[in-house]
Amino acid sequence: MGFDPYEPAQRRQLRDALKASDITPAELWLNYFSIGGSVGEYEVEAYLQGLLSLPETQRDLLAMAANELIDATPRLRAPYSDQLGATAGPSQDGENQDAPGHAPGERTSNQRPGEQEQG
Fold it and tell me: How far is it between the farthest Cα atoms of the chain?
């Protein structure tokens, strides 16, 4: 196995993706192994630390395993206005999701007393 000049960049970007997604090396290895990866958990950890070189095929399987885990991770997304009607209500921190910073029925700064909110 010869030195691949792209291996350090691939390793660094894999580590960055794992860190950003809170995926542990053990979780990565388990998924990697389940899709056909052939190196052990310790070798994967050594690769991630830059102590061991892996063949391109194994590196690509690690990338595939990481991307599958990243895609399976639920992410917080910004809602569209038509998605709020069914899920509106107090959020976990007690704020009203319909009008951030305002309690239900509370008048907003651009609403006059006695005026109904238009929706």
Answer: 77
